[in-house]
Amino acid sequence: MMQQPPRLRSLLLSSMLPRLVLLVAVLSIILFALSFHFIVKQTDQLQQQSVDGLEQDINYIVSDTTRQLADLAANDIIINSLVDFEQRDNYLPMFFRSLNLTQAKSVEFALFDFAGNRVIDKNWNAVVPESLSSAWRQQTLGSSNAYSSVSKYGVLISVPVLLRGVAEGALVMYVDSLQSLLAPYPRLTNQLVTDSSGHVLFSSEPSLIAPNSSFSDFDDSGYAIKKADWQNLTLYSVKPTITAYREAAWTGIVLLAMIVGFVFIILHMVSMTGTLAERTLSTLYNDIKNRLNSDDKTSLRLDSDVEAQELADIREAFDKLIWDLTEVSLSNEQFSNVLESMGDMLVVVDQDKQILLSNKRFDDFCHDQYGEKNGILKFIMQKLASSQSNELTHFSVSTGQERYVHWTKTSLADANGNIRGDIYVGSDETEQRSLESHVKVLTHAMDEATVSIIISDIKRVGQPIIYVNSAFEELTGYNREEIIGHNCRSMQGDETSKQTVDQIRKAIAVREPIETTLLNYKKDGSAFYNRLNLTPVKINGEVTHYIGFQQDVTQQRQTEQYLQDAREKAEESARLKSSFLASMSHEIRTPIHGISGVLQLMASSELTEEQKHYLSLAKFSIQGLLHIVNDILDFSKIEAGQLQIEEHPFDILESLENLQSQYAIMCQEKGLALHFHFDLQGFHVVQGDDVRFRQILSNLLGNAVKFTDSGCIEVTTSIQQNADNSLKLLCSVKDTGIGIAQDKQSTIFDVFTQEDLSTTRKFGGTGLGLSISKQLCELMGGDIKLESVKGHGSTFSFTIMLEQADEALLKPVHHSSGVKREKGKKRKVLIVEDNDINQVIVKQHLNNHTTLSAKSGLEALEALNKMKVTFDVVLMDCQMPEMDGFEATKRIRNGEAGERYLNVPIIALTANAMKGDKERCVNAGMDDYLSKPFDAIDLIDKVEHWASIERNSEESAVH
After folding, report:
1. What share of the chain is helix, strand, coil (3-state, %, to 5)?
2. CA triple 488-494-495, angle to 5 deg
3. According to the model, what pLDDT value does residue 160 have?
4. What pLDDT score was predicted for residue 583?
5. Looking at residue 513, what is its pLDDT?
6. Residue 830's CB: how many other CB atoms inside 10 A?
């Protein structure tokens, strides 16, 4: 009796266990070695990353801060501050307070002019060594380049403020230490930065190594150190070596636990696999044995002592099965799988045209057609009766579209070469046909496009053009054969911008899109401006081609040049207009002043009642004429952009009360009641333009008095506080006058507009008052509106924006430090005036004082030098021949009239009323300003005021 073979599970365990033990041992050694190597390498990489990160942080802080400073230096506010000395104090402090470029808590900023003088700063307490101060000044102010320094003295970065490519100043940022700049950034390891002498500038762990200490004093035993050089600094990464060993120990413990678990899992899997294999093979054996004939055939056994019983049983059963299937070459199931795996449709018919076999694709195709399978096959066989292949069109029921199928017919022959039928194979080419059609449409669309299109192959040498459309031929004059295969450089010329060409090359080199304009040349040599848009084309994620869209923008460039010329002409026109207005202001006000002065002189003489009446009429006419002139000049200044809104504290309650007193007399004369209502919410002193506020309200009050014959006028004023603490003033003037028709209200604020001509004839006026009031309201951040009913009066309401102000900021009248006044004395006054009439008028007004006149600045200087008497006051006209009043004043202040007149009071007498006139007088050194025409009382008051002040010789003349 044969010995019973061992079970499969026992064979598997006995065979795999020794190998498994060896595999686990080798794997454990390799894993431990790799883990230790990986931890050591990872520690080294971590330190290298830490050093690299520290270097990137320093580079980023320096470069990013330099870039931000450069952007600020290019800001119009900074550039204008180096030019506009008068206005920069208004906006630069607020601008500098808002600067915040780094995360450091203590950052100092300063703006220096070209001479290296500090213009303005933010927290600037920097104590910089002379060598460092000289270095940034020479690099930034001298060479117009940015400068940065990181040292034990701190971090200093400076950039030039360029004007036309030349440094007119410098913007400087200073941080007292590198520690405060780098402290906010996260750190992978302990990091240090030292200078060349080993002085610690930064330490991420001050408890380990303190900043400002010496690195040589640090005991580095037990630490892994990685360092790198950056400029004149040394960057360190410091990590305790015990950390790496601790990580290796823990990794080893984890690996050991994993390996032990792995061994137990493998043993369990082998046992379970053996059991499962036994059960499976036994079941398979029984099944095969039941299917086959039970013949007592003895099968060949090999190494039966080690062969599993289950395998022996299977071999015996399969021997019988193989014997029975030797004459079968391929089972029907296998052949069916081959047919189903085909990508094409297949159908096999016999000689009687009956279907022997068809795959699933053909069956699905038939289901998507109208009719039965045999009918569809009959149609196909008819079409291929005379040919071996043909493309047929079929209608798809599911999509409602045509399907294009290429059918091929092949004869079916047996092993002896006898024809048994035909094989039909169909390939669906619908998607390919659709793709080809789509490509044709796109190609046709590109060729017919009105925009020039060009495609180049950037993977080939020279990046040749592979496609151009018809619009390109029309634009450049080149046909396809002349340009395809060549580069676009043939369209460039001597005047083509090399910089633009370099930009295009750089964009292509980095595979980025670019849009630019450059000068190209057509085939006939004519130049044109080409607006070029280049877009990269990717195939499988790689840029292989560029498509360019070209457009002739020559006419647009010419239009831009025309607009530039027009803008320059408009600016020149505005300048001439401003000059004309200044001249007209002087020329109109001068004769008005003469007339007004003569009338004032006549008023001081003995007149009859009839003469006084005539004189009052003349004065009223002069005031009306002056009002018209002022309106025209205000309108012209607004139109020319020269009217400036002032910002200063004023008492709005006092202004309203003064207007009430002024117009109460006019209302009393017409029998009208005038009521003022206030709701100022306690804001009596505000910040704004008091003159323009009173001008708006005076215009509205004047109109109300003019157009109201009976009834009353009510003025209501209130102030609202906004969320941002700004103030909004709302004021309304309500009258019971003639009112304004509804159809005229939309144009009442237009220039030179009144309700109708009868209004102009009856009440007079230019029609500028309301237009000026509206524009003044808009300049002051508000608006004006009207509510009126014809015959029942009008209500004009306006708003302006104000700011809160401290009452202590109100400027006292004629206030000057350390002044003493002497009244009642006869003063000596020098009158510098080229107009004879104005000289006579001023002399008569000042007949209680001693006066001497000069007709030009030269005569004034000569009189001041030669006269033995000392003048107490100089009245200086601004516009005179030979030497004007501005130049004469500057020379007096420079000492050309002698030491005694260095601080003599000089009062400007000017007929100008344009923006900047008063500032010119102050800048020239004049003490006060009197605009023609002036009242005699104002002249006398200013002369006596300035003549009675004892001035120190060192006192400035500017007030």
Report:
1. 45, 25, 30
2. 95
3. 92
4. 66
5. 93
6. 24
Strand order in the sheet with 514-521: 465-468, 452-457, 542-552, 527-539, 514-521
Reduced to 3 states, what is the DSSP secondary structure of residue 772? helix
- The whole-angstrom separation of Cα 160 and Cα 165 is 10
Quote the DSSP letter at residue 930: E
Distance CA 822, CA 825 (A): 7
Please report the DSSP string for 631-676 in residue order. HHHHHHHHHTT------EEEEHHHHHHHHHHHHHHHHHHHT-EEEE
How far is the C-alpha of 227 from the C-alpha of 51, rounded, in Å? 7
CA atoms lying within 13 Å on the CB side of residue 664: 8
Contact in structure between 362 and 426 (CB atoms under 8 Å): yes
Task: Give the start-end residues of each E strand in 323-384.
Answer: 345-350, 355-358
Global pTM reads 0.39
- Long-range contacts of 626-633, Cβ-Cβ distance < 8 Å, separation of 24 or more: 626/592, 626/596, 626/933, 628/766, 629/585, 629/588, 629/589, 629/592, 630/913, 631/766, 631/768, 631/769, 631/772, 632/766, 632/768, 633/581, 633/584, 633/585, 633/913, 633/914
pLDDT of residue 803: 93
Taking the C-alpha atoms of residue 173 and residue 69, their distance in angstroms, rounded to an integer, is 8
Ranges of the chain with pLDDT below 50: 1, 296-306, 326-330, 757-764, 813-821, 952-959
Selection from 487, 541, 476, 537 nearest residue 512 by Cα: 537
pLDDT single digits (tens) 828-840: 999 998 888 888 8
The token duo for 196 is 């060349």
Under 8 Å between Cβ of 377 and 356: no
Q: Taking CA 164 as the corner, what is the angle to CA 158 and CA 166, rounded to the nearest 5 degrees?
A: 40
**Contact in structure between 841 and 819 (CB atoms under 8 Å):** no
Omega prior to 6 cis, within 30 of 0: no
Kindly provide the b/e burial profile for residues 800-828, where b requires at least 16 CB atoms within 10 angstroms of the residue's own CB.
bebeebeeeeeeeeeeeeeeeeeeeeebb
Distance of CA 18 to CAs 12, 25, 27, 263, 267, Å?
A: 11, 11, 14, 12, 12
Name, in order, each residue with C-beta under 8 angstroms of 354's C-beta and a sequence gap of 6 or more.
none
For residue 213, the model assigns a pLDDT of 83
In the chain, how long is the greatest CA-to-CA distance?
171
Q: Coil, strand, or helix at residue 267?
A: helix
How many helices (H) and strands (E) the chain has is answered by 25, 31
- 8 A C-beta contact, residue 908 and residue 869: no
Q: What value, to the nearest 5°, has the Cα angle with vertex 491 and ends 488 and 493?
A: 125
Rounded alpha-carbon distances, angstroms, from residue 40 to 37, 231, 245, 716, 912:
5, 29, 9, 85, 86
Show Cβ contacts of residue 511 under 8 Å, excluding neighbours closer than 6 positions. 536, 543
Q: Per-residue pLDDT tens for 171-221?
A: 888 888 877 777 766 666 778 888 878 888 888 778 778 888 887 777 777
Instruction: Name every residue whose Cβ is closer than 8 Å to that of residue 637 and which is 6 or more positions away in sequence.
Output: 581, 643, 914, 915
**Dihedral pair phi/psi, residue 418, rounded to 5°:** -80, 135
Q: How far apart are CA 588 and CA 689, in angstroms?
A: 26
Cα 245 from chain centroid (whole Å)? 52
Please give the Cα distance from 253 to 32 (Å, whole number).
Answer: 10
Strand ranges, E, within 145-216: 147-151, 154-163, 166-175, 190-194, 200-203
Q: Identify the pLDDT of residue 957.
A: 40
Return the SS3 of 141. Answer: helix
Q: Is the CB of residue 644 less than 8 Å from the CB of residue 634?
A: no
Rounded CA separation 831/839 (Å): 7
Q: C-alpha angle with apex 196: 191 to 201, nearest 5 degrees?
A: 40
pLDDT value at residue 628: 66
Alpha helices, H only, 98-206 = 130-136, 178-182
Please tell me the distance from the alpha carbon of residue 853 to that of residue 636, in angstroms, as a whole number. Answer: 34
